[in-house]
Amino acid sequence: MGRTKKPVKYAVIDAFTESEFKGNPAAVCLLEEERESEWLQSIAAEFNKSETSYLIRLPVTDSPHPRFHLRWFTPVTEVELCGHATLAAAHFCFTSGLVKENTIEFLTQSGILTAQKVIEPKESASLVSDKGEVEQPFMIELDFPAIATSECSLDETSSISKVLSPASVIDMKKTASEDLFVVLPSAKAVTDTQVDFEELKKCPGRGLVICAATPSESGFDFVSRCFYPKNGINEDPVTGSAHCALAYYWSKKTGKSDFTAYAASSRSGVLKLDIDEQKNRVKLGGKAVTVMEGSVVV
Fold first, then answer.
1. What is the mean pLDDT of the chain?
2. CATH topology classification for 149-279
3. Who has the most CB within 10 Å: 124, 146, 170, 216?
4. Taking 80 as the threshold, does the pLDDT of residue 5 lie above it?
5. Whether 178 is catalytic
6. Annotated active-site residue in 34, 36, 51, 151
7. Interhelix angle for 242-254 vs 83-95, to 10°?
8. Nearest to 83 by CA among 291, 293, 286, 289
């Protein structure tokens, strides 16, 4: 006899934004038990979001915080680290009644990742839930590994001229997560740049991050865009994990440890960053909005 089909609860959540249909959307599925990777990949392809995350609550351990197993899938592959889908998963846990605590832990391929609910000051506008309850706005702060940047090889440097238009490059690095990392002269250059995705697929590494410093009056320290056509994502609207490398690079460049970053995709997004070089960790702060809820029935 075949397996009895149990509906799997899901939500689609826009991460690193406080506005619907902005930021980076992720699907979050709550599983009662482990499912085969092929099924997880098929569902991720069906959602066709840049990431789909899968949560399973783990038994009580010696940790004082609730802990979940967390995996991330693009439409075509599983990945080792994803920021916006982790933020979405944490938002799901905090808003669905799964947890009462303000700190939760995720067991992932990149180790234990912590998410903390940070309540905003009381003078901030409160929200009313569909149950008629008053909810205080909050931000989520993720504790992620810092990702180092290093010098590119000659092949990596020469390949980028075929990918970017215009190709005025101030600096070029590669990240420990195998992204090409390109610094452009201005925020306008970042927003205006066109990427040849077929050429990018031929380049070494996983994907491409482009960024630039911004003037102080903008309210941001730097802007960026991220591209991962090899993973089925031509442009990822807001890539949390890339900011682990962005924080590392700009910390080395400026001597600062705290940043406000702007993701300059068409959907846009805002991230608060705090890098601790001694611990080799980055705190990623952002908001999220639930835009859809339902059940997977297969």
1. 93
2. Diaminopimelate Epimerase; Chain A, domain 1 (3.10.310)
3. 146
4. no
5. no
6. 51
7. 110
8. 286
